[in-house]
């Protein structure tokens, strides 16, 4: 399994290229602000052929490069229907005051081929099986992507802005909800095996086991005690 990731643009959003191995087809996850060059470099370095872009949610820091990346490789973009409007109307999703000075340099809009994600779907792309879990809270259409255990890696969860090392995504943008976030953590994250790798994470990754032990939000959900009224200000 090959997972090539890099932080992109002004927000440092994590973008990933995932393939069964170097020299094969790949899926691109969350090509955000200024990610196109990084994607092109990873494609060249690992001799990859992109077949799809998949998006954990629609905030501009995760989708800003969708149009040029999809256009360069003639591939579709997959997004949950609740977040699809954000590709064309990012100001409605995050408001005018956050990151809007960058709007002049961003390419907003939808690529030619947009397909909608549904909860529980298993996407078979590039020789991979990505399990989609609808996980609202950060946005109404937030999703995670799960990869099963392979010969050389444990299970992997691409968590978007649902879960980070020691933290969770913010819930104060339009469509955000702490109640939904807690429900998503309980339903999507807690049932996973401790060995499951979570991306993104501190120093490249964390695991569900580490988060059970150290993440105060996940520990409170697991204990049935609820959580703090406001999530940390991390991630758009």
Can you describe what's shown?
It is a single chain. Mean pLDDT is 89; it is low at 226-233. This protein has 236 residues and is an alpha/beta fold. A hairpin with an 8-residue loop joins strand 9 and strand 10. Helix 5 (178-189) packs across helix 7 and helix 6 packs across helix 7. The chain is built from seven helices and 14 strands. The chain has a six-stranded mixed sheet, covered by helices on one side. A six-stranded mixed sheet has the order 7-8-9-10-13-14. The protein has helices at 36-46, 60-63, 66-73, 90-94, 178-189, 208-214, 216-222, and strands at 2-8, 13-19, 25-29, 49-54, 77-79, 114-116, 122-125, 128-134, 143-147, 156-158, 163-164, 167-168, 197-199, 206-207.
List the helices and strands and how they pair.
Layout: E1 2-8, E2 13-19, E3 25-29, H1 36-46, E4 49-54, H2 60-63, H3 66-73, E5 77-79, H4 90-94, E6 114-116, E7 122-125, E8 128-134, E9 143-147, E10 156-158, E11 163-164, E12 167-168, H5 178-189, E13 197-199, E14 206-207, H6 208-214, H7 216-222
Helix pairs in contact: 5-7, 6-7
């Amino acid at each position: 399994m090959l997972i090539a990731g890099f932080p992109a643009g002004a927000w440092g959003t994590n973008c990933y290229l995932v393939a069964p191995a170097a020299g094969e087809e790949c899926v691109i996850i969350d090509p955000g602000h200024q990610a196109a060059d990084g994607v092109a470099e990873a494609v060249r370095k690992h001799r990859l052929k992109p077949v799809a872009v998949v998006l954990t949610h629609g905030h501009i820091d995760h989708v800003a490069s969708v149009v040029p990346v999809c256009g360069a490789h003639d591939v579709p973009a997959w997004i949950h229907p609740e977040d699809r409007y954000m590709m064309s109307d990012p100001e409605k999703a995050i408001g005018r005051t956050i990151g809007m000075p960058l709007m002049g340099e961003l390419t907003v809009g939808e690529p030619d081929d947009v397909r909608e994600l549904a909860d529980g779907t298993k996407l078979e792309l590039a020789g991979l099986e990505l399990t989609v879990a609808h996980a609202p809270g950060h946005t109404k259409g937030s999703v995670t992507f799960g990869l099963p255990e392979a010969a050389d890696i444990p299970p992997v969860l691409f968590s978007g802005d649902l879960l980070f090392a020691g933290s969770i995504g913010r819930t104060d943008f339009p469509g955000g909800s702490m109640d939904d976030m807690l429900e998503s953590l309980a339903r999507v994250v807690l049932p996973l095996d401790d060995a499951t790798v979570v991306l993104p994470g501190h120093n490249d990754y964390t695991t569900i086991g580490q988060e059970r032990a150290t993440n105060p939000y996940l520990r409170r959900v697991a204990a049935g005690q609820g959580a703090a009224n406001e999530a940390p200000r991390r991630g758009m």
